[in-house]
Amino acid sequence: MLISIQNLYKSYQLGTKEVEVLKDVSIDIQKGDLVSIIGKSGSGKSTLLNIIGMLDNYDRGSYHFAGHLIKDLNETQAAAYRNQFIGFVFQTFHLIGTKTALENVMLPMQYRGIDKNTQKIEAQEMLEKVGLGDRVNHLPNELSGGQKQRVAIARALVTNADLILADEPTGALDTKTSQDIMNLLLDINKEGKTVLIVTHEPEIAKICNTQIEIKDGKII
Amino acid sequence: MPLKEILTSIRQHKLRNALTGFGVAWGIFILMLMMGFGESFQKGIFKIFNGYADNTIWVWGGETSLDYQGRKAGKSIGFDLELLERFQRRFSEIQYISPESNSPQGMLTQYQENNSMNSLKGVSQQYFEIKKLKLSKGRYFNASDFLNLKPVCIIMESNEEILFKKKKNIIGEFINVGGTFFQVVGVAKPGSMFDGSSRNSIFITYPYFKSLYNEEALPNFMMSLHKNVDGPKFDKQFKNYVAQLYGFDPEDSKALFTYNLSEQVSQFQALFGGVKIFVWFIGFCILLTGIISIGNIMYVNINERTREIGIRKAIGASPRDILKMILSESVVLTTIAGMVGIFAGAVVIFLLNFAIQKMSSEGDLIRGVGFNIPIIITAFLILIVSGVIAGIMPARKAANIKPVWALNQES
Q1: Whether B123 contacts B135, CB under 8 Å
Q2: Given CB 3.0 to 4.6 Å as the disulfide criterion, which of A97, A154, B316, B391 pairs with B327?
Q3: pLDDT of B147-161, one tens digit each?
């Protein structure tokens, strides 16, 4: 079991009011699964993704990742987990604008302490794999939306992460490009990676083997 | 963090960072100039003392004012050459000792149709050591001059110009000083440009001076002490010895007067020590405004790069990595700005020195602006520390940013 979440609760303080975003959420995800989390805007799906991605903490319940209890990690521990086990793909790509495609892909390896030559070789290979071998020295603003997302996927894959978390990966793309990106994510899953896609589009969700629907913070 | 990445980040806002860096560059520039001028001024002031050995003491005999052990007050205290030799034998601290007797009034000095007004000084050979008077021509006095009461003299270069104009071989020539002819045996260079009394003096041997003026007792003399001798302590020991020798009360303040140059030098050294601290303080205050600007701009940078920090954290940057990134940027920005300031300071000091050298003469108080390596090294270290100080608070703020919050920011 890669991910095991049991009776998880999460709330936020909004002024004087406490808003419960996730209520009694329980999920199990096996290694190599292709999972979609679908729900409307504000349903709590992104919060769940953030907790799974160790970007955020939860209040109650339990979350085990590869058998390790993930609870009250400090920032350094969480950063190390993210760097080693998780790759993120965001709706708005989240590339660093001052860095080339190659440098963006090298960045996670830099934080892992890998030497610069190896970083370059592996980032180049990964960009070629996602079809951007001829765009390595381009800055993000010189790339199309689809190309940017491919760079983000290459960045997520370059550390050989076990889990790819994609938050609305096609949300900012046209239909044709969305299809290409989804195909890329499916290929990645076929190679054995666990892929978890957060989406509000049922067509995207349907492609996945497992669908988790979330409404008002609850799994339905 | 690679330097290239830091420089790329700094280049993102060229004008803003350049204007911010100007504050630091200006601070270092002003600090360098102030230290340079301070040092030169100090050197200029200490040139005044260079006309004498560092530990010079003048001694004047006075008149006793207290009755002591049956002796009535009112006894005059005077010296002679034998006594001076005795002092030198008694106190190993004394390096050189010499009379310095002056003619009562200015003397008309003549060589052919040229003349000047001078004073005659009766001295011993050691006098030239005490006053650091080096010869440019001829010789010092010798034993024969003293023993045989030879009418020989040593004149100053300034007198040579007036009396002999452009005449080259003046050694052996006779000059008329107040009706007495003296043969010039040497020409001395001034020990200090401020030593006016030497400049207008014609030096003759003390025995000849004594016979010329029928001086019964030597009213005053001067001596220099070996280096590292505690001047004030010696002064006390010496006064006690003279009091015992002459039989006057050691507490009698009118019997013997001394003036110790080392005390004056110490006072000036303390004054310049204080000035130096003040200059550093002012320089640091100016630098501080630059540091605050850098800190401020680092805060602005962080606010603009919140999402980038979130991205970096999401892909594995630890708070320590972010702290290092911001601190590195701050230190590099501060160092580049400081280097510009140091370079500008060096160029300006070089140009000032060039201009001052052209316009000033040997006698001027300031003959250049100091530029020394320890100041540069200190300024450089201050820069690095400043960079860390400027960046530490913004860096800590950046390190503590929550990635989930940062990723949702607009910028």
Answers
A1: no
A2: B391
A3: 999 999 999 988 898
